[in-house]
Amino acid sequence: MNRATQLGVMFCALFAASTLAQDSDYSQASHGGVGIFQTPTARMAPSGNFSLNYNDLDEYRFWSASIQLFPWLETTVRYTDVRTRLYSPYPEFSGDQTLKDKGIDVKLRLWQESYYLPQVSVGWRDFGGTGFFESEYIAASKRVGPFDLHLGMGWGYLGSGGNISNPFCELSDGYCQRPGGFSGRGGMIDYQRFYKGPASVFAGLEYQTPWEPLRLKVEYEGNNYTKDRARGIVQDSNINYGLVYSYDSLDFHLSYQRGNTLAFGVSVGSNFNTIKTPKFDRPPPEVNAAGLSAKRFKRSTLRNQLYYRAGFVTTGIKLDGEELIIRGQQQAFREFDVSIERVGRVLANFAPDKVSRYRIILEELEMPITEVVLQADEFRTYARYESLDQPVSSVYVRQTPAMDDIDWQFTTLNHGFGYSFEPFWMQMLGNPEAFFMYQGGILSSLSYQFSEPWSATGVIKTTLLENFDKFNFKVDTQNSTLPRVRTFSREYVTRSYVTLDKLFLNYRERLQKDVYAQAYGGYLETMFAGVGGEVLYRPLDSRFAIGADINYVRQRDYNSEYKLFDYSVVTGFVSLYWEPEFFDDSLITISAGRYLAKDVGVNIDVGRRFDSGIIVGAYAALSNASADEYGEGSFTKGFYVKIPFDLMSFKSAKGMGQIPWIPLARDGGQMLKRPVYLHGVTSEREKPRKYYK
């Protein structure tokens, strides 16, 4: 269960903001992912492409989301509604809801198409779950004029027709039979089943008609529907055919499958690299030929101009001879170079003309994070377009702020109250009571800054809309040998319409040049209260950072806003943050330590940032809790999309919202959701990147 800024409706805003039409060369298959109808192809969508899909095929309804994470990697998540079967035989548990199943697909490009050779990809469908459509395949695609030819071989569901001998069976008898299926627990990838049992060849042809929006498709599939989970499916033909009509960002699918079934679907697409929203910010100020005279210079005027023209909240100003030093926080422009250019233009106009150097100290939570040095003459030449075209990065220097205290001549109040209001949205998919369950409302935050390192924050959660009243039960009935640190989630989210989400005291400080620290205590998250601390080592512009946190927490009583249960635990992790050169704009976080249920292990998180600033990521927690101890799902895993707020606004803004997807959350491999993470606070220390390339 996550909060605020995890606003599900952000997806709607994303597609409303998109001006990118679907690429007619890369349409989605019925199960999701680039393909024909039932069969995948070797084709990949452009990097960053994202598609939401719905397909109706009589006994099945497929909801899927597919994203091209890299030019060579396609991932798809899918929910299947099996209309011919009930979720369970117990009406008091799931009513008359039909059976739902979730699945994950991955396709990997081996090599691109050349003049003579086809494009070749390998893929795995519905692996690691209940395996309704579990398959492995290899596919080749070759374009000839308006025709795109496809040929592939599949195992598992795609190969169930057995129209060809399994070539691996010739190498070893162990590949001739496919081992038994779903264990009842799910979540694990059963490598022992890969490429075993019957195999089938499948093929397809796509024709791009002279009328650009229309694309025709035909395929020969290798499936055998006699053992489908929907039961009783009749297949009169292995040939499926149909069309795709594209309109703006929409694809409409119509097909005739199995020789007896009319199917239809729709896909809506965008691209996370190119999506953007037009901005109506104040234009950056033009730079005068010279600054102000010493008599006309006013620190209060400079502070106001920095806020209104550059989105920079100033907390300190010092004029020291020919050097002007300011400190503060950028609150409007998330691209580093845009922020620095705006601030520099204001300084060039409102600083005394005798100043030869500007020092800009960027802060977060009152801590100095990064310092930018601008030579006044060089910047003025750049800003007045008096030099060759060059980026603003050519006229500034980034450095770590000095540890020496500065005797500020002008400071704003560094104590007092602050407040904010944010929407929150949480959702559950595939529940027994209903497929889609939700809760939304407002998070109201009130903070008080005591002095520079100390602050107190309280967050009230107010629920405005939900359908959680459909819950037929609270904690699940599965036997658990692990402490129930997360499986009381239904109790927590339904305890009241107005609840205390957080209330904590925070202390933070920069200890050394590249070392940051914090301590905190109070109601740290929805389910736990306690005390803790974190230390982070993060060199400027480095691809590596390392941190450690330690926490003593007790479980909060879901029947009370303030009381605690007896369960307590010491939990903490050592974390390595790595931005590898071979994965563009990616962050890998590896955390080793002790989880909330006292199991010990490693949490691996991989996030990919696109040019728009959107981040898509996945994580998995592996611990010494066995799959049997964990229960259904076998281990903790999840996916998330982080969306910059200014993609949904006509004004520039900082901050991000997060939409999570957790297939099944149980008690093993669960980390404390700390109220503040130093790696996020110190994000200005990462090497600047352009969001729109």
Give an account of the 3D structure.
With 693 residues, the protein is mainly beta. It folds into three domains: 236 residues, Porin (Beta Barrel); 113 residues, Diaminopimelate Epimerase, Chain A, domain 1, CATH 3.10.310; 270 residues, Porin (Beta Barrel). It has eight helices and 31 strands. α3 packs antiparallel against α4 and α4 crosses α5. 38% of the residues are buried.
CATH topology of the largest domain: Porin
- Percent of residues in helices comes to under 10%
Average pLDDT figure: 90
- Give the number of domains: 3
CATH hierarchy class name of the largest domain: Mainly Beta
- Give Rg in angstroms: 28 Å
Give the class from helix and strand content and strand pairing: mainly beta
Strand order of the largest sheet: 19-20-21-22-23-24-25-26-27-28-29-30-31
Counting DSSP E segments of at least 2 residues, the number of strands comes to: 31
The CATH architecture classification of the largest domain is Beta Barrel
Largest sheet: 13 strands, antiparallel
Q: Helical segment tally?
A: 8
Apparent shape: globular
Distance between the termini: 35 Å
* Percentage of β-strand residues: 35-45%
Low-confidence stretches: 1-23
